[in-house]
Amino acid sequence: MLKTTNPPLFRHYEQVSRLSPSDHHPLPAASAIAAAMEECQLPLIDLRGLGSRDERERAACAAAICRASSEWGFFQVVNHGINPGLVRKMRSEQSRLFRLPFDDKVSGGLLNNSYRWGTPTATCPKQLSWSEAFHVPLSKVSHKDCYGDNFTSLREVMVEFAAAMAELAGTLAGVLVENLGHSRGDFEDICQESSCFLRLNRYPACPTSPEVFGLVPHTDSDFLTILSQDEVGGLQLMKDSRWVAVKPNQDALIVNIGDLFQAWSNDIYKSVEHKVMANAKMERYSIAYFLCPSYETSIGSCREPSKYRKFTFGEYRSQIQEQVKKYGYKIGLPSFRL
């Protein structure tokens, strides 16, 4: 029997379509969707400014980061300090990993058994993500027993890549924290590298429909996310109450604010809803770094009067999981507003 690398996404799509025929309407042609979708260029920030000897250049770069975090919740960075050769090696190893037979990815114990695909809780097509991923805690990235004998090179690259992303995340978070009148040291005590995650994503080509989500609309539940993506595109975000497509830029990394930073900043920084649309002909790869605290960490607003009640990250994650089970989608921060 021929082994396939793809998860059974089409079968799952058919199953959830039968569960909810009222949600499954004829879809417009892909060309009509493309024509209606506005493409945007995210704010592009050159991080060399942060290391400048000129105080005005440093201040201007920091101000651009904070302004984009407030106005867009998303921005791109170049000259970020992560070697392009390292990014290429990471993408090559990622591609080799996902080419494994599906059964091996599911049951092979790779990367701390972190493989996941589709959306197990989906009850209709609009809740289904046409994708697969390894969602790896950084505390496990260096463990040899997570890789087996055939992925020694993946381990070496993952360790180096995770360290580089962690350093960049710390730099960006430090800028955002200082803008609110707090010290970087206080925030470093909240977010330690061991509580963060690295997620390797693959979005297989999807001939089923031009409106299938590669990743359903959501906000990120962390402090901030750093994304390295290929040239295929598909990322969209909510801007001024409408969806806009993000023009891919392989030379830049995308940064977005998560729910925890919105709550901690008392809504000064914005966690913006975003999604990935599946591509009918091409697969898409991306790698995301999630800056997270420990589950025991208490999250409170840095300014008074607070717009949110205090909660732990563990409590937040638990409530989101319950919401997804009950409603099929995440409510998130509005549940914690005072």
From TrEMBL:
Q: Name one Pfam family in it.
A: DIOX_N
Q: Which residues form the Fe2OG dioxygenase domain?
A: 192-293
- This protein's superkingdom? Eukaryota
Q: What is its EC number?
A: 1.14.11.13
Annotated Gene3D superfamilies: B-lactam Antibiotic, Isopenicillin N Synthase, Chain (2.60.120.330)
Catalytic activities:
gibberellin A1 + 2-oxoglutarate + O2 = gibberellin A8 + succinate + CO2
Which keywords does the record carry? Answer: Dioxygenase, Iron, Metal-binding, Oxidoreductase
Q: A GO biological process this protein is involved in?
A: gibberellin metabolic process
Q: What GO molecular function terms would the record report?
A: gibberellin 2-beta-dioxygenase activity; metal ion binding
The UniProt similarity line reads: Belongs to the iron/ascorbate-dependent oxidoreductase family. GA2OX subfamily.
Q: What is this protein called?
A: gibberellin 2beta-dioxygenase
Q: Which species does the entry assign this protein to?
A: Linum tenue
